[in-house]
Amino acid sequence: MGFAPFQYMATAIEEARLNHKASSDHPVGAAIEYKDGIIAKGGNRCHQDQDPTAHAEIVVIREAGRIVGRKNLRYCTLYVTCEPCPMCAWAIVTARLWHVYYGVSRIVVEEVLCVPDEFRTQKTESKKILYSGDHVVGCTPDCHLAGCLELLRLCTRRPLGDLNPFKNIGNYWNLESECE
Ligand SMILES: [Zn+2]
């Protein structure tokens, strides 16, 4: 299982890339794994569908529900290229997903997209666990980080040299992707 998360995330990255090429949606991709296979994959479709809730996570959760024939996605694992926003985090818990692997943290995304300070996520350490009532979803950040960071280059005109302003986070561009 050592490289499986990396490979599943590669599918999410490819979805983000394809989707971004076909539309002007942000390059965020996701995939859901169940029983060692991908049952749903897709990208952010907010612009294409004129639907502000069509984040990549929501797109694949809906598709996975149709595939497995139930609303409960227990034993399914979600891979997404960016850390889920609060809307998606809640959907993930509600769907009873087993685990979430994500690539780039929201703090980094906001930095790259030059989100104004007043709209940024609180600069505290990301929660590694999402929970509601008796259900807990484990989270693993930084999965296939290099590939996920590459996606951010698709949505900024800032030159590569300027894309490493994360002095407090470290030199992400040189990190080898890894996740267990
Ligand atoms: Zn979201």
TrEMBL record:
The keyword Ribonucleoprotein does not apply. Keywords: Metal-binding, Zinc. This is CMP/dCMP-type deaminase domain-containing protein. It comes from Candidatus Yanofskybacteria bacterium GW2011_GWB1_45_11. PROSITE patterns: CYT_DCMP_DEAMINASES_1, CYT_DCMP_DEAMINASES_2. One of its GO terms (molecular function) is hydrolase activity. InterPro entries: APOBEC/CMP_deaminase_Zn-bd, CMP_dCMP_dom, Cytidine_deaminase-like. The keyword Metal-binding applies. Coiled coil: none annotated.
